[in-house]
Amino acid sequence: MGSGIAQVAASAGHAVILYDNNKTQLDQAKSNLTQTLNKLAEKGKISSEEATTILNRISFANDLNSFSSCGLVIEAIVENLEVKQSIFRELEGIVSEKTILASNTSSLSITSIASACKNVSRVMGIHFFNPAPVMPLVEIIPGIATD
Fold first, then answer.
1. 100 within 8 A of 124, measured Cβ to Cβ
2. Which own/partner pairs from 119-126 qualify as long-range (CB within 8 Å, at least 24 positions apart)?
3. Radius of gyration of the chain (CA)
4. Roughly what angle, to the nearest 10 degrees, separates helices 2-11 and 23-42?
5. In whole angstroms, what is the distance from residue 31 CA to residue 36 CA?
6. I need a labelling partner for 73 at 20 to 30 A (CA). Which of 14, 53, 63, 93 fits?
7. Per-residue pLDDT tens for 8-31?
8. How much is the pTM?
9. What is the pLDDT of residue 125?
10. Mapping DSSP to helix (H, G, I), strand (E, B) and coil, where does residue 133 land?
11. What is the pLDDT of residue 34?
12. DSSP assignment of 39-103
């Protein structure tokens, strides 16, 4: 799901950092994105130059500190409250105080995820429907304290 969200954001002109702590998964995500963008170019949906431009907007990282200058972070990890809370807690210590921390969760409470943070007002849900590059629907979910 994270790769699809990265593709959507990069296609819209944004610089994107795609993170995975598993280097093999990160390499696979890069390979899959390259194949997807090349197929879109082959089908004439985008130009080959556009495919290259989109891919070049995506950085691949396995260090959470890579997010230090981001204004928005969207996590799309396993649907496990404790894991999500842990990553949000860690991210909060890395990003600026103004960074929006968002979860792509479809089943967990945003308020519960936010409870791990010192600043719960900046936590929200941004639920992309699958597959993100095809489904133009995004659900915005506030927690109880989302600003």
1. yes
2. 119/92, 120/145, 120/146, 121/145, 121/146, 121/147, 122/97, 122/98, 122/146, 122/147, 123/88, 124/100, 126/74, 126/102
3. 15
4. 50
5. 9
6. 53
7. 999 999 999 999 999 999 999 999
8. 0.93
9. 98
10. coil
11. 97
12. HHHHTTSS-HHHHHHHHHTEEEES-GGGGTT-SEEEE---S-HHHHHHHHHHHHTTS-TT-EEEE
Residue appearing with tokens 């992309």: 128
The three-class DSSP label of residue 138 is: strand
Distance, CA of 135 to CA of 120 (rounded, Å): 29
**55: Cβ–Cβ under 8 A, 6 or more apart, which residues?**
10, 33, 34, 37
Three-state DSSP state, 28: helix
Bridge partners of residue 102, in order along the sequence: 74, 124
Cβ–Cβ under 8 Å, residues 117 and 92: yes
77, 35 Cβ separation under 8 angstroms: no
Number of C-beta neighbours around residue 96 at 10 A: 11
Within 10 A of 135 (CB to CB), how many other CB atoms are there? 12
Q: Which of 92, 82, 100, 77 is nearest to 18 (CA)?
A: 77
Per-residue pLDDT, 127? 96
pLDDT tens track for 81-115:
999 999 999 999 999 999 999 999 989 999 999 99
